[in-house]
Every structure is written in C-alpha cells, then in structure tokens.
Amino acid sequence: MSDSREYGVGMIGFGGIARVHAYAHASLPFLYRPAPFSTELRGVCTSRGETAMAAMGEGHFQFATTDASELIARPDIDVIHVCTPNDSHRELAIAALEAGKHVYCEKPLADGLDGAREMLDVASSSGRTHQVTFQYRFVPAIMRAKQLVDEGLVGAPLAFRFCYLHAGYTDGQRPMSWRLDADKSGGGALFDLGSHAIDLVQHLVGDVTRVSAALPTFVHDRPVTAGSEDRAPVHVDDHAVMLMETDTGAVGTVEASRVATGTTDDLTLEIHGTNGALKFDLMDPNWLHVYDARAGGSPIGGRRGYTKVQTVQEYPAPAALPSPKATVGWLRFHIASLHAFMTNVHEGRVGDPSFADGAAVQAVLEAAQTSHQTGSWAEVPEIARPFPT
Ligand SMILES: NC(=O)c1ccc[n+]([C@@H]2O[C@H](COP(=O)([O-])OP(=O)(O)OC[C@H]3O[C@@H](n4cnc5c(N)ncnc54)[C@H](O)[C@@H]3O)[C@@H](O)[C@H]2O)c1
Predict the structure, then answer these.
(1) Which of 14, 106, 202, 378 has its CA 20 to 30 A from that of 359?
(2) In whole angstroms, what is the distance from residue 42 CA to residue 217 CA?
(3) Domain limit, last residue, from 87, 107, 135
C-alpha cells in the first residue's frame, strides 16, 4: 500500500451533479476507514463569475475561476472532475489529461462518437486514471449481479430488458435547457438515461453489436425560458426504444424515457440465461433477485424460484459506514463510484469504468441514432477495451 497522500481536486461545472461529487469527496473520510489517501476541494470553474464565487463558498473551495485552463494548469490540482454539459466534455477532459491530471468525467462521455474516440486515444496514452461516472455499477445489488454473472449463475445470456424511466419532461411548459438542445447534449433521453442502461447491458450481458431504435420527440417546442411566450424547437428524443443484440448471443431491449408518466427514477433490469436469471429495480435497491434454474423443482416446487438476496449496503472494506445491514440509496452509489476512482488514482490504475467503457457506450448511442434516421438496424462499431471491465 502506498503512503498516505492528499490529492487536490478541481471541478469544472458546479450544477446539480458537481454538488453530488463535492458531497462525495466530503463524505469519503467518514465512510471509508482506514484511508491511505485524502482529498481536498481546491478549485472550481463555472461559466459565470457570480456562480463561480457562489460555488467556491458552497463547496469550500480555495479559489474560483471562469477559465477552465487556469484551473487545469494549477500544480496543486491532481484530479479534474468534468461536470459540464456533454458538448464540453471532450475539450475539457483532453486538456486535463494533457496537463497530466487524472479525470473523472460525467456521462455520457461525449456528445458524439468522434469526440469519445479522441478522448479515449488521449486517455490511453496519458498514463493517468480516467473514469466515467456510471455510478449504477456501484450499487451493491449490481456488484453482486456482476459477480454472479462471472461465476456462471446466468449461464449463456439469452434475453434481457433494461429500462431507465423518468417523467420530468412530460410537462410541455418545462422550458428549454442544454439537455433539450441537441448541439449541447448530443441526444435526449437516449444520452441522458439510456447511457446508464446501455453501460449496464455491456457490463452484465455483453457488448452490443447492433441496434434497432425508435427515438420519438413528443414535445416539439418548449418555452425558451420559464413562463416565456416564445418557444424554441426541440430536436432531441423524449423517449428511446431499442432492440439489441450482443456479442454473447443475447437479444434484448433497452428503453429510456423522460416522459414516462408515473415514474420517478425507475431503472429496472432483467437478464435470462441458460442457467438462471437476475432482476433488479432501483426503486427497491436493497435487493437483487436471483433465480437458479438448476435448483430442484420437486416436490411441490422444491426450492425453485427467485431468491431475494439482501445486498443492502454490503460494500467491501474499507467501507466502514453506514453499517452493511443499513438500507442503501442514490448518493451512496456516487460516493462508492468516487471512492473507486480515487483508489484507482492512488494505486496507479486505469479507471473502471474507463473512457474505453464510456466510448463503447457512445458507439451504441450513435448507432441508435443512425438506426432511427435510416429505419434499419445499425451495426455498432467495436471499441477496443484494453482495460478491466
Ligand atoms: N451520473 C449521474 O447520475 C448524472 C446526473 C446528472 C447529470 N449528469 C451529467 O453531468 C453533466 C452536468 O449535468 P448537470 O445536471 O450538473 O448540469 P447543470 O446544468 O446543473 O450544471 C452545469 C454546470 O456546468 C457549468 N458550465 C457549463 N459550460 C461550462 C464550461 N464550458 N466551462 C465551465 N463550466 C461550464 C455551468 O456553469 C454549471 O455550473 C452532464 O454531462 C450530465 O449528463 C450525470
């Protein structure tokens, strides 16, 4: 184990998700003990001077700027968080890697596959840690699902259905934002929520090789600002429905939506294989449902049936708080994801999920858009993944 060390942290962007990342840094020393490293929030960059100053106060950073290159150039910053809209991830992450920083980048990796490939190229030759915030890989139930898949519980995967459903954009009066602007986001529900679900498919089932997608937009224009009479056109999808095949021989569906009335944060997955099956529901995150087809079915059903495994808060050491028997929730997944990233930084490893995993998701996102435009199946270009998954 390396000597204890303090890492200086710089955040670019301080909106909704950067606050979660800052909270996660502040939580690390309480939740993980003993800790061979510590982190300090040193600098923050936002797009306007007043938000930068407010962010500095809120996050207890030591300095604030509106110039990302100033933040990246500072020698007291070791780690850069990219927490800005999708169209700026490429430029910021590459600048940070080229300056010798480790990069924790929000999802989706970029606003398009070309940008994601470029980020992966620079990351691969940088010798630095690069990781994408696919925090659902750090849900204990998903961590257990991955172990069981690797141990052969599912066998050969045959079929799957993953959904990530929100309802927040059902209201046509909800105003425009960067998420609804194709130039800034690259895509709608597909990029926002579909990226998480596709990463989980590739983590648990196999790499997607081809996809057939429908990406409808239901609300075609929205107020330019809250309450405005002026409306701007929306060119991103509200809802994504995809049929997919994987290199492991499975076929399945992924659905992502921001207009799924009645849902809140509904991420569900089901995998069926030759030996067994798995089910998970983010709204009930303490359990992984496991079916072993090899269990005896007699007499009277024997012990056959789904087992509700109590994965609750079962993080491995050095996780020390909350107790492993306690219920688990959304912020905890982000803290676990950040802890994994910082451990990789400290131990000199590539991130996991790395930019290669992020680019592999981006390849599926782009193929889905191609499929929607052409009305045909689209092949997913292969992204070499030399890093652990
Ligand atoms: N992993 C998750 O669960 C999750 C959740 C929400 C958002 N995200 C991702 O996080 C990213 C940011 O989303 P958000 O919801 O926090 O957005 P947001 O609109 O709340 O905040 C964006 C921030 O970026 C700043 N910004 C914009 N352009 C900038 C630039 N060029 N340089 C410096 N600062 C700039 C803004 O000032 C603002 O502080 C997106 O990529 C999004 O997909 C991930």
Answers:
(1) 14
(2) 41
(3) 135
Half-sphere exposure of 283 (CA within 13 A, CB side): 11
Crossing angle between the packed helical segments 355-374 and 195-204, to the nearest 10 degrees: 110
Nearest CA to ligand 1 atom 27: 84
Q: The dihedral of CA 168, 172, 173, 175: what is its sign? A: positive
Cβ of 253 below 6 Å from ligand 1? no
* 208 within ligand 1 shell (Cβ under 6 A): no
Q: Which of 135, 168, 183 is a domain's end point?
A: 135
Q: Are residues 104 and 154 in the same domain?
A: no
Cβ count near 33 (within 10 Å): 12
Flag whether the pTM goes above 0.85: yes
Ligand 1 center to residue 222 CA distance, Å? 21
Q: Is the CB of 16 under 6 A from ligand 1?
A: yes
CATH of the domain at 50: 3.40.50.720
Minimal-distance CA residue to ligand 1 atom 23: 13
Contact 112, 187 (CB under 8 A): no
Strands in 251-257's sheet, in edge-to-edge order, are 307-310, 287-292, 276-281, 266-273, 157-165, 251-257, 239-246, 208-214, 378-379
For residue 279, the surrounding DSSP H or E stretch is strand 276-281
Q: Is 257 within the bounds of a domain?
A: yes
Q: What is the pLDDT of residues 134-180, one digit of tens each?
A: 999 999 999 999 999 999 999 999 999 999 999 999 999 999 999 99
